[in-house]
Amino acid sequence: MAEPRADTRPVAGVLWMLVTGLCFVAVTALVKYLGDRVPAPQSAFLRYLLGLVFLLPVLRPLLRARPTRRQHLLFGLRGVLHAGGVILWFYAMTRIPLAEVTAMNYLSPVYVTLGAALFLGERLAIRRIAAVAAALIGALVILRPGFRELDPGHIAMLGTAVVFAGSYLLAKIVSDETDPALVVAMLSVWVTVALVPAAAAVWIAPTPYELAVLLAVAFFATAGHYTMSRAFQAAPVTVTQPVTFLQLVWAVIVGAAVFGEPVDPFVVSGGLIIIASVFFITWREAVLRRRAITPAGPETKG
């Protein structure tokens, strides 16, 4: 089992992931607002194509970067995986409410946490297992499987969760080896290329207004992927991922205030369970970090 890194900063990782969650909720709201006026594969392609604009300020240092062959392969694999997940996610946004899309996304952190333990050698302590389990129970309270009919959007989100989990694990690997800006840039390039065939098959002429909305989506998504990479650098995946559960709270607020979606009491109850688990694991990691860096007894004088 791999030992924790000496430079792990759990609080910094949590804060970076908090910003990531805010960015991704903005992305979700904008895609929801756009609706099905533009086909999902085309919307996804335009989001990434327009997102390349935000790479211009860091273009020069990125061109000087020299990724290894292995890193190029990981970048390419992540881009293809992420492209499929983005198409499914854009489709789901046209079918089901904002809060439900966000709740379904909670499957990804569960898969990521388990994958990090299985493939990356990260420790999966009992407190982390308990926190993730509590958060998953909260998501189940929201979704109420077996008590209502599933929409194709729910099926799409199930696929999205699996694909994004693989993408995030690959992001964790390359974030430990190279600059977060390069990780974000290579994702944008590879996903854009991978989406070309799917977008071409359903292409319609977008209006200037629709392009403006997708440009805003690109801005918040690019910012979110950058802050996510910074979170992965600061702390293990099993520390940072539970923070994404807070997105549910913001999604419920935006869904009710902007889209008129009713506030479901099951969503509120599940959200409270999730928030409690997030605060617990964040507090525990901060306490353990302080203990690890503060020598005890006579050693303090050494």
One letter per element, helices H and strands E, the order comes to HHHHHHHHHHHHH
- Helix coverage percent of residues? over 70%
Q: Whole-Å distance between the termini?
A: 30 Å
Model regions low in confidence, pLDDT < 50 over at least 5 residues: 292-302
Structural class: mainly alpha
Radius of gyration: 20 Å
| Count of beta strands | 0
Largest sheet: none
The DSSP helix count reads: 13
Shape: globular
Mean pLDDT: 80
Strand content: under 5%
Describe this structure in words.
The protein has 302 residues and is an all-alpha fold. Mean pLDDT is 80; it is low at 292-302. It starts with 9 loop residues before the first helix and ends in a 9-residue tail after the last helix. The chain has helices spanning 10-34, 40-51, 59-64, 69-93, 98-105, 107-119, 126-143, 152-175, 180-201, 208-234, 237-240, 247-259, 265-293. The chain has 13 helices and no strands. The protein is globular.
